[in-house]
Predict the structure.
Amino acid sequence: MKSFVYQSEKYGYQLEFEVNNWAERSFISLLTKFKDSRIFTTLNFGSEIPDLDFLPLTVDYEEKFYAIGKIYGSRFIRREGAPSLNSILNARLVDRAIRPIFPPIFRKEIHIVNLVFSYDSSIDPGLLSLLSSSFALYLSGIPIISPLGAVQICFKDGEFFINQNIDDAEMKLIFSGTEEKINMIEFEGKEIEEGLFLKALEIGFKEIKDLVKFIKNIKPLFVEEVKIDSSLFEEGDKKLEEFLNKNAIDLEKKLFNLVEGDKTWQEVFDLIKGNEEFGDLKPYVINSLNRRYKKIFQKKVLETKKRPDGRGLKDIRPLFAQIDVFPRTHGSALFMRGLTHILSTVTLAEPGEELWLRDIEFEGTKRFIHHYNFPPFSTGEIKTNKKPSRREIGHGELVERALKNLIPPQENFPYTIRVVSEVLSSNGSTSMGSVCASSLALMSAGVPLKTHAAGISIGMAYDSNDNYELLTDIQGPEDFFGSMDFKIVGTEKGLTAIQLDVKIEGLNLKQIEESLERAKEARIYLLNFMKGIIEKPKEISVYAPKIEVLKIDPLKIGLIIGTGGRTINEIIAATNVKIDIQPDGTLYIIGNQNSNFELAKNWIKSIADAFNLGEIVKGKVIKIFPFGAILELAPNRTVLLHVSEIAEKKIENIEKEVKIGEELVVKIKNISEDGKIYVSLKDVRK
């Protein structure tokens, strides 16, 4: 067992990597410590799969309820179940960061598992899992580009917080990189200016560099480098060259001067897959073709400044949008950018329809929900529809983060909001199209957004730090063969969400700044287009529930409910509404066009506003019993005047003291927690 401790000189935190034999049959077994958080990471290899055009890497992130000292799950099971939303997002976070640092021809199966054994809310466990996974990968001996450092930055009230979780932060940023480049960004913000975002990157990048230097000093202590046999890949290169020459295939013509959506370039893959002459070398020939296409794409774009579909570097595909697509949905919008077509719908519901979440990081509700669906027909494929993939969940969450800080607070707009984005046709940038479609649909539904938000993907053709070009609004081949997918969302005022994924070592700060400038230019263009479709929220649909809000003294909640719920049920039955009462005294009155909201509100007010402890009030006698008289203090509000509270003396015959129809002046003597009012006549007569 060996421990390696990184001490941040500037920010004072301590990060410890403990290499152990807990999982002795795994290739790497590692415990990462930060304050009271503990992340246990394992890394294992499998066989080589050369015919894949992607790295067979699987990253899992598993939360353990015992990490926070809780027993969750169904009462009949009481154990962890399917991965939570946060588990899926954290697994993707790690995967997106470490995938670019592998050698391009590495095709061994790799499985990295991060288990949260102890959770301290002061730090993001996804960040620790990223650091732990990177360290494990570096120790494994795989010839990666470099180990990664990573940092979390929050911003609030003019101050940056490094590797600290801050509630209600104006900006939350997690990013990773090497000593030279930033290779993954995950950002959420409340319309943050580009300059402030870049400042956060600059601060965090210095910490990343120090961490990477620390890790590199550990390298000699561990296993030998994993060797990659490139001979079969070289043989595949030769076979591909022979095949192309024999069949007079010009790959450049297959890839460029295409109408958008033309998949001529894929024909060569199909030819090779159907050719049995390659024998066991076929997977390596396919791999070679993929790498060859990438080189052609980069070279051609850099030389001609033109893209496969003929667009210039800054050109955005043709736009089309329509709102109110369906008559019965509460809001809907169709947004088209080239062959990427997104249909978003909005459903408004009462506060009680919120999404309940429970994991080790959060337990509570979410009132704004976005779901993203990517069906097979969106790419013309024939597949069985399955449960949402990690990618669909991740894209849905990205759009949600991009818009949630533009949604009005519940006290101003009490609805639960669900947006669903259906990808009807896909040719790149579907998540960014979903942002635009969702923003339009929310306005269509009458949700008073602060403003529209729009998203754009910036790509790159890259040869070196001095020779590269940025591509605005990437599509199909540019996504497959380009060097990055930089998703940037914001308003006219600032940034709301960012996600960077690369296929190279990463970007320097200058390239990131240029990408932000390019994205802002495109975003303003998109926002102007969207405002031409709908600039202000419409009236809420007649098919949506109507909700009105009242505030009462929390001590009066029992009065509204009444004994056994009698009072509130009487109001509900008479006015055709639902009433949702919150502990702080907020009442949501929910109904439809046929509900009598005014009667319900006045009824509640007459109960809540009429009576206070110690108050002197008038009550009309409506019934008499041997044990007391029933007084009506207000419409539908009756109380018992007990016989013992009528006079100081003992009363033998109550009917001699009070009469039906008589008005009595009484004092509110007590109000119980369940809303019962106790009055006294004798206290007034003293």
Summary: The chain has a mean pLDDT of 93.
